[in-house]
Amino acid sequence: MASTRPWRVIQWAMGSIGQISVRHLVDNPAFEVVGCYVTSAEKDGRDVGELAGIDPIGVLATRDVEALLALEADCVNYAPLYVDVDEIVRILRSGKNLVTPSGFTYPPALGAALRDRLEEACQQGGVSLFGSGIHPGFAGDLLPLTFARLSSRIDELVVQEVGDFRNHPSAAMMFDGLGFGRHPDDLKADPPRMFATMGRTFKESIYLLADGLGIEVEDYDFTWEPAVAVRDVTVRAGSIKQGHVAGMRLEWRVWNGGKPVVIFRSYWRMDDVTEPDWGYENAKYALYFTGLPSFRVNYEPTEPGPDGDIGYWGRIWTAMAAVNAIPVVVAAPPGLRTHLDLPVAQPPHLHR
After folding, report:
1. Which 3-state string (H, E, C) describes 201-217?
2. CA 157 to CA 292: how far, in whole Å?
3. What is the pLDDT of residue 103?
């Protein structure tokens, strides 16, 4: 993985995850930001450092895809809110490796047609594609695979996430994408747009974990239910009226032997109390292993985030899980890469 020069990176999209990524890529001497793609005219032509909230770096953001793909770069850090497979294929064919926190953690679960198309693009460009993030990408796949080494037998494995979204900055994701603030009847009749994206990404992650543990997937399902605000709530991304959606409980499940064996469970909230009240804990991730032995593993931030935004640390985890894998992805043979075939990443210059 040793490099005689910084890894040259193009940042693709400058939302909250893209901004965090750029700040790290600029601060870490192992990397160099050489280009940046943005979707809005407002950001087009502006210095990437300024868009990330730091000093100018002398690189201007652009909406000119051709100009970006003509650059000499080792990797694209692809972090839009919604992925565009045609765009990804175009990037790969241009000869640039791609890491992303937006899915593609386990392309074999996507179906043969899409998997083969992505693999073909990797081979044409002589590059690799790797998907990561906090969950999916780490908490639900790499972390339990690691702790499974301590088990003699696993009867059931639950990956649980508690997300506090009160200070999340993106109205596009929280309200338009996930449907917070809508009436629960309306949400059930017309599920949120992001559920389709999450259905793909969480299926990949839970299939990766099942495959890594040697569990045959006999069935797979997804269930969810909303919770409503017990008062009017104002959060960073907007306002939620009493009786409208302010919480969600979601489960993705792999079945074997007539029962769920691997379960991804997420509790998301916009207030301390909702109806129903599921007894929210602090924002954290936890693994519950039932078997021989039965044990729990959990991790959570140890300090409040900027302006009290505890979710900020989760967004850093999401961004870094992909960015810190760039060296091993660039060094890997061309093709679709996952946690099951990549070596353990050794993130460069974290102590600096």
Report:
1. HHHHHHHHHHHHHCCCC
2. 12
3. 93
Q: How far apart are CA 292 and CA 294, in angstroms?
A: 6
Alpha carbon of 69 to those of 73, 234, 279: distances in Å? 8, 42, 48
49-62: pLDDT as tens digits: 999 999 999 999 99
pLDDT digits (tens, 9 = 90+) for 251-302: 999 999 999 999 999 999 999 999 999 887 777 899 999 999 999 999 988 9
DSSP string, 106-163: -GGGG-HHHHHHHHHHHHHHT-EEEE--STTTTTTTHHHHHHGGG-SEEEEEEEEEEE
120-130: pLDDT as tens digits: 999 999 999 99
Query: pLDDT digit string (tens) for 216-237?
Result: 999 999 999 999 999 999 999 9
Tell me the torsion sign for CA atoms 240, 241, 247, 250: negative
Domain ranges of the chain: 7-132+325-337, 142-303
Q: Which amino acid is at 223?
A: T
Determine the Cα–Cα distance for residues 199 and 183; give it in Å rounded to an integer.
22
State the Cα–Cα distance between residues 22 and 60, nearest whole angstrom.
13
The CATH architecture assigned to 7-132+325-337 reads 3-Layer(aba) Sandwich (3.40)
Average pLDDT of the residues of the chain: 95
Rounded alpha-carbon distances, angstroms, from residue 55 to 10, 22, 43, 50, 58: 18, 11, 16, 6, 9
**Strand, coil or helix: what is 296?**
strand
pTM exceeds cut of 0.70: yes
Please name the fold of domain 142-303: Dihydrodipicolinate Reductase; domain 2 (3.30.360)
Rounded CA-CA distance 29/100 in Å is 21
Question: Tens digits of per-residue pLDDT, 158-180?
Answer: 999 998 899 888 899 999 999 99
* Contacting residues for 163 by C-beta, under 8 A, at least 6 apart: 266, 267, 268, 269, 283, 311, 314
**Is 236 within 8 Å of 174 (Cβ atoms)?**
no
What is the residue type of 239? S
